[in-house]
Design a protein that fits this description.
It is a single chain. With 395 residues, this protein is α/β, with parallel strands linked by helices. It has helices at 8-14, 41-49, 63-76, 87-96, 113-123, 167-176, 189-192, 226-238, 245-256, 258-277, 296-302, 319-327, 375-394; strands at 80-84, 104-108, 129-133, 149-155, 180-184, 202-206, 220-224, 282-286, 309-314, 344-348, 365-369. The strands form two sheets. Strands 1-7-6-5-4-2-3 form a seven-stranded mixed sheet, with helices on both faces.
């Protein structure tokens, strides 16, 4: 690195790389390790004391792990990054590291459904109160705080329906009260948005998605400042959380191409979303990068780009007609997760997990992830799907 502060693309190419510490090898090697040997008692004792800062035991990480964590922290602008076995693990570890029995946690109503399940089944069983809020509330979230509120958690944007919160407006009153602000930044990654620079304390990722980028890794990451690093590490490792070095290698390799991949994901998704806006079968498209989206102004102000994930609401149609559309798609696969090179589509029901905001759209909702294929081919695939849907609806 030069003395000049590098831009994102340069960080992605070089952060975490120290070739001359590995015999000149460009990519940090995969260190497969459980046992680590020490030449002296003094070295052993030092390793025990500094177990989160060096190589001491495989579960605490290897040079492969540390290279990935260093690179992601540099991209995000945080002091530290922590790897965990999945995105959900990163979210649950972040919350559980700081929430204690009797605390009050505020969670956005539009969060990833497994997070809501964790709140209802796990947090509440430990005597932690959970309340849900509309993430569009901005600074008025202060009216929901109690003397026991410890954490404010939300996503940018919200799962399934892509509402774009004003992170700074939500974070400011929370920080004034000493409430920890945790943001799921998976959709934009640290390339297109940096929550810590907008007032968040923790930026959380499902690195399974765009960071790894090839639909073959399960991983979560937390980026934070020094004051929050050790509590999370102590809690996560106390529960035996560890990530395999091969997965860290794959995620680090994916990170190197994040910028060029997201540029293509964004262009393709905007092309497909714009086409969908003009279809008679579509009631509305939910993509913050589109000018007509309610969250577009915030996205345009705070973000430097988008990815490939967005939603669409169709006009009412019966289940059989919707299935006729989806079952015959050849390029859009139906599967969970997203962020890989391939396009995906899922029928979803946001109403099932809303209590503070509700969901009243009469037609079915689709979540689309637009991959790296030619957008004209993807549009043709969807067009044939709509033809099948209309034919089935007419029967």
């Amino acid at each position: 690195m030069t003395s000049r502060k590098p831009n994102n693309d340069t960080v992605l190419a070089h952060a975490g790389n120290r070739p001359y510490e590995h015999k000149g090898i460009v990519n940090p090697p995969v260190y497969h390790a459980s046992t680590v040997l020490f030449p002296t008692v003094a070295a052993l004792e030092q390793a025990i004391q500094d177990r989160f800062r060096g190589v001491s035991y495989g579960r605490y990480g290897t040079p492969t792990t540390f290279a990935l964590e260093e690179a992601v922290a540099a991209l995000e602008g945080g002091a530290h990054a922590i790897t965990l076995p999945s995105g959900l693990a990163a979210i649950t570890m972040a919350i559980m590291s700081f929430a204690k029995p009797g605390d009050h946690v505020l969670v956005a109503d539009n969060v990833y459904d497994p997070v809501r399940g964790f709140c209802e089944r796990i947090l509440k069983s430990y005597g932690i109160e959970v309340a849900y809020f509309d993430s569009s509330i901005g600074k008025d979230v202060a009216g929901l705080f109690t003397d026991k509120t410890r954490i404010l958690y939300f996503e940018t944007p919200g799962s399934l329906t892509f509402e774009m919160p004003d992170v700074a407006a939500l974070a400011a009153p929370a920080r004034e009260r000493g409430i920890l602000v945790m943001v799921d930044n998976t959709w934009a990654t640290g390339l297109h948005f940096k929550p810590l620079a907008h007032g968040a304390d923790l930026s959380i990722y499902a690195a399974t998605k765009y960071i790894a980028g090839h639909s073959d890794v399960m991983m979560g990451m937390i980026v934070c400042g020094t004051e929050h690093y050790r509590p999370i590490k102590m809690f996560a490792h106390g529960l035996g959380m560890a990530v395999a070095p091969d997965d860290c290698y794959l995620a680090l390799r994916g990170l190197r191409t994040l910028s060029v991949r997201l540029e293509r994901h964004e262009a393709n998704s905007v092309a497909v979303a714009t086409w969908l806006e003009g279809r008679p079968e579509v009631a509305r498209v939910m993509h913050p990068a589109l000018a007509r989206d309610p969250g577009h102004a915030i996205w345009q102000r705070d973000f430097t780009g988008a990815g490939g994930l967005f939603g669409a609401v169709l006009h009412p149609v019966d289940k059989a007609a919707l299935a006729a559309m989806l079952d015959g798609l050849s390029l859009f696969g139906m599967g969970f997760s997203w962020g890989g090179y391939e396009s995906l589509i899922l029928p979803v029901d946001p109403a099932k997990s809303r209590t503070a905001t509700g969901w009243t759209e009469p037609g079915p909702t689709l979540r689309l992830h637009v991959g790296l294929e030619d957008p004209a081919d993807l549009i043709a695939d969807l067009a044939l799907g709509f033809e099948r849907m209309r034919a089935a609806a007419a029967q």
